[in-house]
Amino acid sequence: MELIGVNVGGTSSTIVRGDGEGAILDRRCFPTRASRDPSDLYGDIVSAVRELRTNNTCALGVAIGGPLDVRRGVVLGTPHLPFRNFPFREKLQAEFGLPTRVHHDAAACAMAEWLWGEHAGVSGLAYLTCGTGFGVGLVLDGRLRYGSNGHSPEIGHVRYRDDGPDIFGKRGCFEGYGSATALTLLARERYPERLGSLDPAGITALARAGDPAAVDVLRENERAVGAACAMLADLLVLDVVVLGSLARYLGDSWIAGVRDTFEREALPHLARHCRLVAPMDGVQDRSGLAAASDAIT
Fold first, then answer.
1. Which of 37, 65, 87, 95 is the most exposed place for a label (fewest CB within 10 A)?
2. Domain 119-277 in the same topology as domain 2-111+282-295
3. Where are the domains of the chain?
4. What angle do CA 90, 133, 268 make, to 5 degrees?
């Protein structure tokens, strides 16, 4: 059994061919260039799927940022991409004649971790993207959790503070503090002359060198992610929270900072039960495969 998985990210997009165990057999990757016309981006995705498809391909899956309607496979208006009310599932099924599922990228990453990661089969798992955006995917009792009408949960839009960066019309939301993008936004707001021109990588490099302003920005980011983890653990009694891109890039010291706030904010017995971990290698590439596997179950 072979699957095709598509991961559409704000910076780059990856299309892979893999098997039902999550192993990647071949891949294509290209810059998303999110400012272009949606038909051009969709055309690049279709071309890559055509290149990778074989006679053994039995399903197609897409992992993409929300908000989206999972039941219909429609991207409603993800802020980091050009798609608006875009019927991904309908178009891809018509194009390739394969069973197709479209999942929120955080949900697809959560399912990939639950299927093939170190924490496979746990009762409650959350995946926080901590990347361009700040999304959450939930696997509870073996099932992806979506809300009314198939809409994805959007933790990034939840207000964390009364002040802070304005993200999509909501000042102080978790995405403005906990995403990788938030490092730049917080730096520009707090230290415009010192750090205003730097991207997340530049801010991180300065923080590692001990620059006080950059360290302050990084610590604020860690506190926000820790608070989000505590909220999720208290509400859902989780076994694992997988921390996405920032954990992969910043490593154990950043995770320790997140955990420090998490342990202060969450109920003690729930904090003891819940682990905060970095994602498995290749989870984003495998997220589309997880979505494809759902198309045939």
1. 37
2. yes
3. 2-111+282-295, 119-277
4. 115
Please name every residue paired with 167 in a beta bridge, in sequence order, or none if there are none.
Answer: 170
Element (H, E) at 166: strand 166-167
- Residue 152 has a pLDDT of 81
β-bridge pairing 57-64 and 2-8: parallel
In 3D, which of 102, 93, 64, 83 has the Cα closest to residue 294?
102
Q: What is the mean pLDDT of residues 281-289?
A: 94
Going from the C-alpha of 32 to that of each of 15, 18, 287, the distances in angstroms are 12, 21, 17
How many CB atoms are closer than 10 A to CB 152? 25
Q: How many CB atoms lie within 10 A of CB 272?
A: 10
Looking at residue 80, its pLDDT comes to 78
Q: CA 234, CA 153: separation in Å to the nearest integer?
A: 16
pLDDT at 79 over 80: no
What is the band of 85 on the pLDDT scale with cuts at 50, 70, 90? very high
pLDDT at 186 > cutoff 80:
yes
For the 2-111+282-295 domain, the top CATH level (class) is alpha beta
Compute the half-sphere exposure of residue 27: CA atoms within 13 Å on the CB side of its CA: 16
As to burial, measured by CB atoms within 10 angstroms (0-12 exposed, 13-18 middle, 19+ buried), residue 55 is exposed
Q: Are 5 and 18 in contact (CB under 8 A)?
A: yes
What CATH code would you report for 119-277? Answer: 3.30.420.40
- pLDDT, residue 159, reads 95
Residue 210 near residue 95, CB atoms below 8 Å: no
Q: Please, what is the average pLDDT of the chain? A: 94
Percentage of the chain modeled with pLDDT above 90: 85
